[in-house]
Amino acid sequence: MISPVSAFVLYAFLWFLTLLVVLPIRLKTQEDVGEVVPGTPRSAPADPQIGKRVIVTTIAATIIYAIIVTIILSGIVTVNEMDFMNHWMNGR
C-alpha cells in the first residue's frame, strides 16, 4: 500500500519532471519569429502557451503515474528491488 503523502510526492515529482520535458517541445523563440522585444533575450519564447503545456504535462504525468503505481501495487517489482544502488554497492 502506498501512503497518501508518498503518492502525492511521487505524482508531484513526475509532474514537474514531465513539465521540464514538455516545455521546450515546439518552442518558437523571439529570434525564430523575428520579433525580439527590447530588454528580453533573443531566446525568450514568443508565445509560451503555458496553459496548453500544463494540460499536456498533466495528462502525460498522470499516465506515467498510473503505470508506476500499477507496477508497485501489483507486486511485480517491490520497492526494495528498485534499490539497485544498495545491491550494487553491497555486491548482491
Overall description:
With 92 residues, this protein is mainly alpha-helical. The protein has one domain (4-90). Helix content is 64%, strand content 0%. The chain has helices at residues 4-22, 30-33, 50-74, 79-82, 84-90. The protein is elongated and about 55 Å long.
Content-based structural category: mainly alpha
Strand content: under 5%
Large-scale geometry: elongated
Q: Give the proportion of residues in helices.
A: 55-70%
Please, how many helices?
A: 5
- List the helices and strands in order: HHHHH
SSE topology:
Layout: H1 4-22, H2 30-33, H3 50-74, H4 79-82, H5 84-90
Helix pairs in contact: 1-3
Features:
single chain, 92 residues, mainly alpha, 5 helices
Short description:
With 92 residues, the chain is mainly α.
